[in-house]
Amino acid sequence: MPGITGPSDYSKEPIRHNSLQINSKEPFNAEPQRSALISSYLTPADLFYKRNHGPIPIVDDIEKYSVSISGLIENPKQLFMEDIRKLPKYNVTSTLQCAGNRRTAMSKTKTVKGVGWGVSAIGNAVWGGAKLTDVLELVGIPKLTNTTKYGGKYVEFVSIDQCKEENGGPYKASITLSQATNPEADVLLAYEMNGEPLNRDHGFPLRVVVPGVIGARSVKWLEAINIIAEECQGFFVQKDYKMFPPSVNWENINWSSRRPQMDFPVQCVICSLEDTTTITPGKVSISGYAASGGGRGIERVDVSVDGGKTWMEASRFQKSDIPYTADDDGNCDKWAWVLFEVTAEIQQSTEIIAKAVDSAGNVQPEKVEDVWNLRGILNTSWHRIQVHVNDSNS
After folding, report:
1. Over the stretch 287-318, which tens digit does the pLDDT of each residue have?
2. Is 80 exceeded by the pLDDT of residue 348?
3. How confident is the model over 182-204, as pLDDT tens digits?
């Protein structure tokens, strides 16, 4: 693509924050300390988790950078950044979460394949850019459309990113045309993150943001948009990020038997304490994040400090008066996480548990064994922290 290149090696990687926990150097995959996630409602770009499949693309000339829109449409177009910036700008607060978040905990039950994420492969940001609905209207696709007259039913996003999983080809993913053309879905072609231009790690100069859906569908370093008849046939749609039951292993897996994962389930994590924490007896603040996909808000967060025998409801915080313009309906937090907090008296060693319930009444599963799968995705089981009390008088 003119204006942007996908390097063949890792010699020109961007500088990253030195506090990140690196899970893979080449390609670079890293997450912040869990305590950093609850230090602010919006996750700073340098502390937002980094999920990559190859070397980070380099923009050579922003003026020459463009995105092609083609496929089963009548009028293919090449859009430059100035064309996209002329469209109405929307700011959407959305949480992105890697499908492999909390994979390390799942692997303790039985080995899984994938990057060893802790609990911080998630972040919340204000994404600024053009709505995909407005972009597609430029090529004659109206809002709220299920199919084009040429049979297009899916929208495929193609990156300049080069991936070993695609045999050196580009990363790509797709969503349905009905979702892409629904203004309420708030799918963006984003060029800003928290009021600043995207940095290289997060897709500069342009990326897709699909709110409420696993991060794998929010393609970075966008090169092309293809209108196609069937879902994307790429590796990350057909042979990855699918949810299988615990009975399936690598010997009997049938990838075509499952649909690609899209919405992420209700999730909740304690961030103020590590998995095993030693404290002094007394009042303990328990705080963290909770989120659910598909635009479903968090109805409540329950916390137990006695291993699940009794529960208390945590207070929830979702800041709607952020210094960016919300959408026309004022629903700037429709897709965002909540931060929660509760203070409890703890006098002896115990297990602290947190679980969330979303607006549709969905509850996190109690045991990780019940959701174990060979790819280690969507570990949304109750989050458990072991607390040891250090009583100096004993």
Report:
1. 999 999 999 999 999 999 999 999 999 999 88
2. yes
3. 999 999 999 999 999 999 999 99
Mean pLDDT of the 231-246 span: 97
- CA neighbours closer than 13 Å in the CB half-sphere of residue 62: 12
Task: Write the DSSP assignment of 24-56 as a string of letters.
Answer: ETTTTEEE--HHHHTS-SSPPGGGS-B--SSSP
Among candidates 92, 264, 96, which has minimal Cα distance to 184? 92
Tell me the domains of the chain and their CATH numbers: 4-257 (3.90.420.10), 267-389 (2.60.40.650)
pLDDT at 159 > cutoff 70: yes
In which residue are the tokens 């999730």 written?
A: 267
In DSSP terms, 331 is beta-bridged to: none
CA dist 101 and 377 (Å) reads 7
351 and 310 in contact (C-beta within 8 Å)? no
CB count within 10 Å of CB 378 equals 24
Closest CA to 173 of 237, 97, 100: 237
How far CA 383 is from CA of 201, 233, 274, 301, 371, in Å, comes to 29, 35, 11, 11, 13
Expressed in angstroms, the distance from the first to the final Cα of the chain is 68
Q: How many CB atoms lie within 10 A of CB 124?
A: 26
Residue 166, Cβ neighbours under 10 Å: how many? 17
Residues 6 or more apart whose CB falls under 8 angstroms from that of 206 comprise 65, 67, 81, 84, 129, 189, 190, 191, 198, 221, 222
> By the 8 A CB rule, do 372 and 106 touch?
yes
Token representation of residue 75 = 């009028």
CB 221 within 8 A of CB 239: no
Tokens of 13: 């990687």
Averaged pLDDT, 60-70? 95
- Whether 376 and 100 have beta carbons less than 8 Å apart is answered as yes
CA distance 334 to 212: 9
With CA atoms as reference, report the closest residue to 2 among 172, 223, 210, 219: 223
